[in-house]
């Protein structure tokens, strides 16, 4: 496919369902195109490995978007009137557990005065309770996420912690609507967990566990 230059590129703002969205207009390869997108914050995520316990530290939390996708999958009739003013009600709601996912510790980049590493350390402390020096972080990579809608950038770090570095239970900030459970995944079970679809998880978990096996595990002392 040959990608020619964009002609008459413009971006328009509009409201949809009460949210500000953006619409890209342009001519591409001789055809008029448009694409709706939203601007969101970039983010950081951290693969945390507890060397004292030989386990990964991840978080488990309820995601409304995941829950609603599961509701739509099981009850598509509820969304047939989505363009109308009336609202459908599910008489027998699905359990909240269908909206719970396992994820890496992560957070948005919304503090211009802090570096990505400093934001990552703050998230580790808030969500998982470990106080990690910036110098303990190792950058794995940066990549695009939400490429069809947001195009934001996420930077993934690796951090090793010990039991002595844990200063609180973590759990996030309830005043910001966070309700986070800290979960430990034993190293010996990590790859089985990564590919077990009965545990809903983000791609970041699978990728980072695989990265660890390729880059860190070979250097660990044999037991």
TrEMBL record:
Ranges for domain Nudix hydrolase: 39-207
Catalytic reactions of this protein: UDP-sugar + H2O = UMP + alpha-D-aldose 1-phosphate
Subcellular location, record wording: Cytoplasm
Main location: cytoplasm
UniProtKB keywords: Cytoplasm, Hydrolase, Magnesium
GO biological process per UniProt: nucleoside phosphate metabolic process; ribose phosphate metabolic process
Chain ranges passing through the membrane: none
Self-association state and partner proteins as the record states: Homodimer.
NCBIfam families reported in the protein's UniProt record: nudix-type nucleoside diphosphatase, YffH/AdpP family
Designated name of the protein: Uridine diphosphate glucose pyrophosphatase NUDT14
Organism the protein comes from: Coturnix japonica
Primary gene name: NUDT14
């Amino acid at each position: 496919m040959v990608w020619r230059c964009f002609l008459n590129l413009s971006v328009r703002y509009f409201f949809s369902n009460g949210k500000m969205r953006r619409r890209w207009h342009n001519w591409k390869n001789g055809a008029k195109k448009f694409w709706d997108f939203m601007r969101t914050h970039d983010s950081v995520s951290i693969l945390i490995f507890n060397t004292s316990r030989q386990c990964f530290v991840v978080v488990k939390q309820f995601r409304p978007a995941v829950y609603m996708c599961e509701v739509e999958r099981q009850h598509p009739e509820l969304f047939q009137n989505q363009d109308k003013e009336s609202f459908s009600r599910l008489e027998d709601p699905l359990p909240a557990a269908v909206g719970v996912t396992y994820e890496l510790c992560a957070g948005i980049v919304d503090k211009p005065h802090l570096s990505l590493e400093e934001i990552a350390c703050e998230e580790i402390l808030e969500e998982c309770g470990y106080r990690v020096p910036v110098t303990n972080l190792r950058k794995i990579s940066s990549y695009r996420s939400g490429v069809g809608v947001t195009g934001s950038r996420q930077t993934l770090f690796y951090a090793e912690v010990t039991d002595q570095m844990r200063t609180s239970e973590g759990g996030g900030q309830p005043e910001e609507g966070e309700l986070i459970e800290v979960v430990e995944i034993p190293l010996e079970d990590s790859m089985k967990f990564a590919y077990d679809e009965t545990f809903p998880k983000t791609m970041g978990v699978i990728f980072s566990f695989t990265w660890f096996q390729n880059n860190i595990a070979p250097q660990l002392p044999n037991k």
